[in-house]
């Protein structure tokens, strides 16, 4: 972290801004889910997990289209995120 504050962001301000916006978009359902009722909260948190999985698939696809080095952590994370979202929705 010291390198980030001393030398700027590693991939530029635009990427940092996009990552910060993503953190807000994916974090909002989680925080809202803590405030509302249990059932609605579960669905909001599931939506956040699902959207995060879709974002991971998008990262993976874009990397492959640009000639990336192949699968990354995003591939595993995308599957886990979608499975957790489905499990949260299917809870009785």
Summing up helix and strand content along with how strands pair, one would put the structural category as: mainly alpha
Elements, N to C (H/E): HHHH
- Give the integer mean of the pLDDT values: 77
Q: How would you describe the shape? A: flat
Percentage of residues assigned to helices: over 70%
* Total number of strands: 0
The proportion of strand residues reads under 5%
Low-pLDDT residue spans? none
Instruction: Report the radius of gyration as a whole number of Å.
Output: 16 Å
The N- and C-terminal alpha carbons lie at a distance of 42 Å
Annotation field: number of helices? 4
Largest sheet: number of strands, sense, barrel closure: none
Provide structural commentary.
The termini are far apart. This protein is mainly α and 92 residues long. α2 (13-35) packs antiparallel against α3 (38-65) and α3 (38-65) runs antiparallel to α4. The mean pLDDT is 77. The chain is built from 4 helices and no strands. The chain has helices at residues 2-7, 13-35, 38-65, 73-90.
Please supply descriptive tags for the structure shown above.
92 residues, mainly alpha, 4 helices, 0% strand
């Amino acid at each position: 972290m010291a390198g980030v504050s001393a030398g700027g962001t590693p991939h530029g301000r635009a990427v940092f801004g996009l990552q910060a916006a993503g953190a807000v978009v994916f974090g909002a359902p989680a925080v809202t889910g803590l405030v509302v009722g249990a059932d609605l909260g579960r669905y909001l948190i599931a939506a956040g997990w699902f959207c995060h999985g879709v974002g991971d698939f998008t990262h993976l696809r874009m990397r492959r289209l640009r000639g990336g080095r192949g699968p990354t952590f995003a591939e595993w994370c995308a599957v886990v995120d979608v499975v957790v979202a489905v499990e949260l929705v299917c809870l009785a």
